[in-house]
Design a protein that fits this description.
Layout (H helix, E strand, L loop, with lengths): L16 E6 L3 H17 L4 E7 L13 E5 L6 H4 L3 H13 L3 E4 L6 H14 L3 E6 L8 E4 L8 H10 L18 H8 L6 E5 L13 H15 L2 E4 L7 H7 L5 E2 L6 H10 L2 E5 L2 H8 L4 E4 L5 H4 L8 E4 L9 E3 L2 E3 L8 H4 L3 H12 L3 H12 L11 E4 L2 E4 L3 H14 L4 E6 L1 H7 L3 H9 L2 E4 L2 H9 L10 H15 L2 E6 L4 H12 L4 E6 L5 H14 L3 E5 L4 H9 L7 E4 L3 H5 L8 H5 L3 H8 L4 H4 L1 H12 L1
Parallel strand pairs: 1-2, 1-4, 2-3, 4-5, 5-6, 7-8, 7-10, 8-9, 10-11, 11-12, 17-18, 17-22, 19-20, 19-21, 21-22
Antiparallel strand pairs: 13-14, 15-16
Helix pairs in contact: 1-5, 1-10, 7-8, 7-13, 16-27
């Protein structure tokens, strides 16, 4: 492959000239290679050029494209990098080629990025501009609908775009260019009498939130060495966590960190029996090289970015926390850096990864492929409540207090695992519109009750009226009464010093048969969550009330739900303060008229800033209508 030049010559009117654009990182470019191969197969005589990031372009096999035009990003994002003199000069040279077609292998997610893509489309001179259609991409002439991240695998999206110019859209393998180094090849060839397992303890520079613990990698390596006499090879960059993982291992490994080019890395991976790593470009190179892959996913969307293995084998290891994935969900980039707790990665255990590795190391390739196909389609989704509506894209469930109590009883009798219940109000919805993690949590909760008179107004305005407001402040005593009658055990978590205990004592006096499994204040910080989860599980609670305030309480529940041995967990905000008498509730007549918010504002003027979300909520609902 060579860089684009300014020499064009006369244009053959019978020959298509196609420009492919993929300016993201290594993994993104690897996932575009099936579409490149399909285009080359369908149009062997066409000129197919690729505009790609310089640091990633060497992974593309030369046979797939005629010319690679390197885009210099450095440490900038692609939009800012576009303004550099070298990139401006390259774009000017595109005009001389006079392309017929431009295909963008990108989602047009950020409006700022559209400036870059529109400029590339304009300077190319192409009459056909192809890409994923969304509300921002009005400059496209031909498009495939962007259904959101994860509804279709990224590689399949690009194959579908290529089909618009006559290429086959059927799934096909990805391709990577490999190049042996004599020194590295001889070193690998010396690794005999045991499987070769390549580890990558990194995630690239885009998001460190995707990284798994170096200590866990070391534990996996030690176990594979002990059980299978595996040869462990470390790859990646010096900025990865691989050096730290190597330091924690109990034996010497072959350390190739920072010692290979991309094509040399691909050659190493082709010789491996197994690759283990988190979501990264290296993981996608391994899958394209035909190596069995164990990939660890946390904040990133595994449905969008899982290893593309048409004929190979891959195992995806996740913790199953309710707030994962939080990045690249729907049509939003979301929380690219995840959250500070990183519980989704922390709860992926070494044992999980070792068992997945054993499937490869103890099974024949044919049987391994069969296992892969059997497990690839498995999905576990909680069925939404039948009365669910959506207000500003947030689910709200229409039900009565008796129906809610019956649902809790059904959950407990069925022993159907933990269920997250959220009490949604207009403030929650406006927070969720700015907080992608909270938005994802509300959309994945088992139940979202309407705790706010504004939601009743909005539901009527949108044509799906909610008959009754379901509040946490009224719900907690009601659930406590049912718990006393049915023997359910309740744990109270959060609130101020001693308030949970005081509220529990008051409820026990009101309902003498109430069984309080425990009370604890604590905090929602990640440093305490392991001990708090252990305490709740030891208490054998059926129902957990969490009073950390929104959205912290629901984030805490979501990231710890898979390991909580409770049937229902629910954030209750200031409900314990009301029960304990620390904060008085509005008079009954104000509550009936939906004026409780006014009473609280008069009592707590500092809430004014939070209340400013209410007029914004009203305006957003009016616009949705």
């Amino acid at each position: 492959m060579s860089e684009a030049s300014g020499t064009t010559g006369s244009k053959d009117m019978t020959e298509d000239r196609i420009l492919l654009v993929q300016l993201a990182d290594i993994g993104d470019l690897v996932l575009a290679t099936p579409a490149m191969a399909a285009l080359r197969e369908a149009k062997p005589d066409s000129r197919i050029d690729l505009l790609a990031s310089r640091h990633a372009m060497d992974i593309v096999p030369p046979a797939l494209v005629d010319t690679v035009i390197p885009f210099d990003k450095g440490k900038q994002n692609a939009t800012r990098a576009l303004l550099s003199p070298s990139n401006i000069a390259k774009l000017c040279r595109l005009r001389h080629v006079n392309y017929d077609t431009v295909i963008f292998f990108h989602h047009f997610t950020l409006r700022a990025g559209l400036i870059k893509f529109r400029l590339i489309a304009n300077v190319s001179g192409a009459r056909r501009i192809i890409g994923l259609r969304n509300e921002h991409a009005s400059f496209l002439t031909d498009a495939v609908a962007d259904r959101g991240f994860g509804r279709v695998h990224e590689a399949q999206y690009w194959l579908d775009l290529a089909a618009l110019v006559g290429a086959p859209s059927k799934a096909r393998p990805a391709h990577v260019y490999s190049e042996n180094s004599e020194a590295i090849a001889s070193t690998i060839d010396e690794l005999t009498d045991g499987p070769i397992v390549v580890l990558h303890a990194g995630s690239g520079g885009y998001s460190k939130a995707r990284r798994w613990s170096p200590a866990r990698f070391a534990e996996v390596a030690d176990q594979l060495k002990s059980r299978y006499q595996a040869h462990i090879v470390l790859v990646g960059q010096s900025s990865d966590d691989s050096p730290e993982a190597a330091r924690l291992m109990n034996f010497e490994v072959l350390n190739l960190v920072g010692k290979t080019t991309l094509p040399q890395l691909a050659a190493v991976l082709r010789r491996a029996d197994l690759f283990i790593g988190a979501d990264s470009g290296v993981m996608h190179v391994a899958a394209a090289a035909g190596t069995p892959v164990v990939s660890i996913f946390g904040p990133s969307n595994h449905e969008a970015w899982k290893p593309w293995t048409v004929d190979g084998w891959a195992s995806i290891q996740r913790s199953g926390v309710a707030c994962s994935p939080c990045s690249y969900v729907g049509h939003s980039i979301g929380a690219r850096d995840g959250c500070a707790a990183r519980t989704c990665m922390k709860l992926v255990t070494s044992r999980q990864v070792i068992e997945a590795a054993a499937t490869v190391l103890e099974t024949s390739p044919q049987d391994t492929a069969a296992v892969n196909k059997a497990t690839a389609s498995e999905k576990i989704n909680e069925k939404p409540h039948p009365g669910r509506i959506r207000i500003l894209d947030v689910p709200v469930d229409r039900l009565s207090y008796p129906a809610w109590m019956q649902l809790i009883e059904d959950w407990i009798q069925a022993d159907s695992g933990p269920h997250h219940v959220c009490t949604v109000n207009p403030e929650f919805i406006m927070i969720a519109r700015q907080d992608p993690i909270f938005f994802a949590i509300l959309n994945r909760a088992a139940l979202c009750v309407a705790d706010g008179v504004g939601l009743l107004w909005a539901s009527r305005r949108l044509g799906s009226p909610i008959a009754e407001r379901i509040t946490g402040s009224d719900g907690v005593p009601l659930i406590a009464r049912h718990a006393a009658e049915r023997g359910w055990r309740i744990f109270f978590l959060g609130a101020g010093e001693g308030i949970a205990k005081k509220a529990a004592d008051i409820l026990c006096r009101r309902f003498p048969r109430l069984n309080v499994a425990g009370t604890y204040g604590g905090s929602p910080t990640e440093s305490e969550e392991d001990d708090i989860v252990a305490m709740i599980n030891q208490a054998r609670a059926d129902i957990l009330f969490v009073a950390y305030g929104a959205p912290q309480q629901d984030k805490w529940i979501a990231r710890n739900l898979p390991r909580l041995n409770v049937t229902m967990a629910m954030g209750i905000g200031g409900s314990l303060d009301f029960i304990a008498g620390e904060i008085p509730r509005a008079p009954e007549w104000m509550r009936r008229r939906g004026l409780e918010w006014c009473y609280r504002l008069l009592r707590q003027p500092w809430r004014l800033r939070r209340m400013l979300r209410l007029p914004r909520f009203v305006w957003a609902v009016l616009r949705q209508r």
